[in-house]
Amino acid sequence: MAITAAQVKELRELTGAGMMDCKKALTECEGDTKKAIDWLREKGIAKAAKKEGRIAAEGLAKILIEGNKAVVLEVNSETDFVAKNDRFLALLDEAAKAIFNSNAKTVEEALALPTAEGTLNDSFIGAVAVIGEKITLRRFEIVEKSDDELFGSYTHQGGRIVAVTVVKGTADAQVAKNMAMQVASMNPTYVSRNEMPQDVVAHEREVQEGIMANDPSLANKPEKVKAGIIEGRVSKSLQDMCLVDQEYFLDTNLKCGQYLKENNAEVVKFVKYIVGEGIEKKQDDFAAEVAAMAK
Which one, 42, 100, 112, 220, has least CB within 10 Å? Predict the structure, then answer.
């Protein structure tokens, strides 16, 4: 199948691999980006997909917390300039309050919520008419806690990255905030391995087996030794995905799990939004670059 310039650009941004390597990986994997990432990793060309999801769009995320309830939401715009506009910021606040005071479960339900202009959707339409850019409510999540739990929150770069944690076992609000900062800065996917689906573990094991198969220095190792190496690599790769297994950002001699234990605390849940995560921006002149490369 024909591989497009956009596909090569996306894979390049996700892995940091060279243009030709990305094109070859996509060709070998019939255009499947996820398989191409694994192919590059197995060949030693790309590191673990730490850049996955970093394709950016503009806008801001926001956290609103009152009592035992919090809402996290993301509103997108076409340019970063508009995300600093007073009308845009007012719309972000209005959406946060409307959703907070509701039981909305979906974006569609949220946009139907009543506001001074009619519905939240009418407010978005009004903002678009004034600002002149497409503005959308992309996603939101309502988080609730019990009386004996704490919220921790952190907003980075005015709302480019936001994180909320629910922590129990401690009355120290700083512990909850530190965990929110950890989530925002170190990007875990799960609280612990206990939450990790088995298919994620199985997939990582397959990738590591592929890497080993392409490593001639390990070819003559006994199978038992190979199995041990694979399990060690799987464990190391997956630990960065789990909050409690990560190095604590304020003291790299500690794991987050150790820090929490020292404070008799436990993270129950976290929510993290990175603005534009997974949204592909407008293509520039990359097609011409690829065309020139192919000549």
Answer: 220
CB 155 within 8 A of CB 122: no
Whole-number Å distance between alpha carbons of 87 and 113: 19
Q: Angle at which helices 19-28 and 5-15 pack, to 10 degrees?
A: 110
∠ Cα 107 112 118 (to 5°): 140
What is the count of structural domains for the chain?
4
In the chain, the N- to C-terminal Cα span, in Å, equals 19
**pLDDT per residue as tens digits for the range 79-125:** 888 888 999 999 999 999 999 999 999 999 999 999 988 999 999 99
- Residue span of the structural domain in which 68 resides: 53-143
Q: What is the DSSP string of 185-243?
A: HH--SBSSGGGS-HHHHHHHHHHHHHHHHT-GGGTTS-HHHHHHHHHHHHHHHHHTTBG
